[in-house]
What does this fold into?
Amino acid sequence: MVNAEKFEGNKIAVLGCGKIGEALVRGMLESGFAARRQIHVSARRAPRAEWLSETFGVAATLDNADAARGAEVVVLALKPSLVLPVVSEVAEALAPGVLLVSVAASVTTAQIERQAGAGSAVVRAMPNTPALIGQGMTALASGTRVSPAQLQLARALFCSVGRAVVVEERHLDAVTGLSASGPAFIYMVIESLAEGGVRVGLPRDLALELAAQTVVGAGGMVLATGEHPAKLKDAVTTPAGCTVDGILELEAGGLRVALIKAVSRAAERAGRLADAAHR
Ligand SMILES: NC(=O)c1ccc[n+]([C@@H]2O[C@H](COP(=O)([O-])OP(=O)(O)OC[C@H]3O[C@@H](n4cnc5c(N)ncnc54)[C@H](OP(=O)(O)O)[C@@H]3O)[C@@H](O)[C@H]2O)c1
It folds into this structure.
C-alpha cells in the first residue's frame, strides 16, 4: 500500500481533528496526498464533526474507534493528555500493521507502542502552526517498528503542510524549542521591526507588512541559496552604510544571546514536560 508520495491505502484517520488535524486534512486534500473518500476524522462535539464533514467532504464521527477501524494510517492530533487514553479506546479497532502518527508533544513512541500493542508502528511528529497555511516545519521520529516506507509516507503526509525532516526521537525536545516555539519568537521580532518602522514615521499597517515580508524573504533566501546567514547578512551590509549601524544596535541589545537562550529554555521546558508526562 505504501507509495512514497501519496496515500494509496483505503483509509487514513485523523483522531481529534482540531487546529493541527484540520491543517493536515486541508493539506492532504490540496496537495493530492489523499482523496476525500480516504479520509475519516473524529471530533469531540457534533457541530465540529458536521463542520468538518461539510467543509472538506470527509467522513466525520464522534466515535474514535469508528474512525480508526481498519485504517492503514491513524493520526493522533489530540492534546497530549488524551493520546494514551484514546489509543487504548481504539486499540481493538486498529488494523494489524497500522501506522500511528502522533503530533502530541511529550508523549513518546515507546508509550504509544505499549498502549497500542504489538503490530502497530508509531511515528512521532512535531509540526508548528505555520502548517495552518501550508508553511509548516515538521520533524518526525520513528518508533521501533516503523518500516522505511512507512516513515517515508509519514514524511510525505507532513510535506503536504510544509517542509518535513526526519530526526532521532531524542532531538524532539530541541525541535520543540526551535521550530515549534520559534514562530512566537519570530512574531516578536516582526512586531518589534514594525514598531521601529512606526517610530521612524511609517503607518502601522505598512510597517507590519514590510516587517513580515522581510522575515519571509530572509528565511526564503537562507533556504533557497543554501548560504550561511552570516554571508547573506554581509551581502546586505555595505561598508559605512546604514545596515551596519543597525547591526551594532542589535549586538549591543544582545539579540543573538536572547534568541539562543529562548530556544534553550523552551527546549528544556519541553524536556521537563516530557519527564512529567512519563511519571
Ligand atoms: N497547535 C500547534 O502549533 C501544535 C504544534 C505542534 C504540536 N501540536 C500538538 O498537536 C496536538 C493538537 O493540538 P491542536 O492545537 O490542534 O489542539 P486542538 O485544536 O485543541 O485539537 C484537539 C482536538 O481534539 C478534540 N478532542 C478532545 N477530546 C477528544 C476525544 N476524546 N476524542 C476525539 N477528539 C477529541 C478537541 O475537541 P474540543 O475542542 O471539542 O475539545 C479538539 O478539536 C497537541 O497534542 C499539540 O501538542 C500542536
Summary: The two ends are 37 Å apart (CA to CA). Residues 15-16, 18-21, 42-45, 48, 64, 77-80, 82, 86, 103-105, 126-129, 180 surround NAP (CB under 6 Å). The longest helix spans residues 255-278. The longest strand covers residues 136-142.
